[in-house]
Amino acid sequence: MKCIAVIPARLDSVRFPQKMLEILGDQTLIQFTYNTVKNTNLFDDVFVATDSEEISKSIENSKGKVLKTGVHETGTDRIAAATQDIECDIIFNIQGDEPFIQKEALSNLIDCYKNDTLGQIDLASLQFRLTEMDEIKNPNNVKVITDRYSNALYFSRSIIPFLRDAEESLPIYYKHIGVYAFRKQALVEFPTLLVGPLEKSEKIECLRFLENGKTIHMVETHSYSIGIDTPEDLEKARKILHTLL
C-alpha cells in the first residue's frame, strides 16, 4: 500500500495573510509542518502543493518537494489536481498550519486502511476531545459529531451538540483536526462533487462529502494539535515550541 502526504498551501489566507511564511522556531511555518510530516517516516513521499512562488522557494530551499498548481477553491481541490498522475493508494491531506501534528495520529489513520480489508473506507479524518468552554465556543475550532460507528454526521463552527437543558451533564465535544486520508479514487471524485449550501455557509470543505452522501470515518486522537488560524494562534505555537526545546 503506497501512501503519500500532500500539504496544500496558499499565501493569501483570509484570516491570516501570508501565515505560511511566518517564522516558527528557525523555519517558516510551511517548512516546519513539512519537516514534521517528513520526519514521521510514515510516507513513501511528502509534497507541498501550492500556486505561490514564495512558498515554493521556502520549501525548495530546504530541499523539500513541491507540486506546482493553479488557483483552487479548496486545499482538497488543489491536492486532487496535483496528484492525478501520481500512482499511490492513499493520499493524506495535511494542513500547512498544523505544525505539531503527531506521528501516532497519522499512523492510526493509516491503520484504518490496513484493517479495511473490504475496501469500505473512502475518507478518514481525526477528532480531538475538547474540555475547555473557550475552545468549544471558538468558531475557528471546527466541531464534529458522529454516529455510534464513528462516522461523521456533521461539522460546524457552532457549538454542536447544543445543550438545551442546563441541568444535564455537559456532552462530549470534539474538534476536527484538519487531516484527511483519502483513498485515491475518492480524492479524484472530490472536485466533481457539487458544492452545497452547508459548505458555502460554514466554509468547511469536508461538508461537501457529507452533502453528497459520502462517509467520513473519524478516528479519535489524544495528541493535541494546534491549528494556526490567527496571529494569536502563532504566538501560542511559539510558546509550545519553547517548552519543547
Q: Beta fraction of the residues?
A: 15-25%
What number of structural domains do the residues give? 2
Overall strand count: 11
Radius of gyration: 17 Å
The number of helical runs is 9
CATH superfamily of the largest domain: Spore Coat Polysaccharide Biosynthesis Protein SpsA, Chain A
The top level CATH class name of the largest domain:
Alpha Beta
Description of the structure:
This protein is α/β, with parallel strands linked by helices and 245 residues long. The protein has two domains: 1-101, Alpha-Beta Complex (Spore Coat Polysaccharide Biosynthesis Protein SpsA, Chain A); 118-224, Spore Coat Polysaccharide Biosynthesis Protein SpsA, Chain A, CATH 3.90.550.10. It is built from nine helices and eleven strands. It has a seven-stranded mixed β-sheet, with helices on both faces. Strand 4, helix 2 (53-61) and strand 5 (66-68) form a beta-alpha-beta unit. The longest helix is centred in the C-terminal third of the chain and has 14 residues, at 231-244. The protein is globular, with a radius of gyration of 17 Å. The mean pLDDT is 92.
Quick overview of this protein structure:
The protein has nine helices and eleven strands. It is an alpha/beta fold and 245 residues long. The strands form three sheets. The chain has a seven-stranded mixed sheet, sandwiched between helices. A two-stranded antiparallel sheet has the order 2-3. The chain has a two-stranded antiparallel sheet with strand order 8-9.
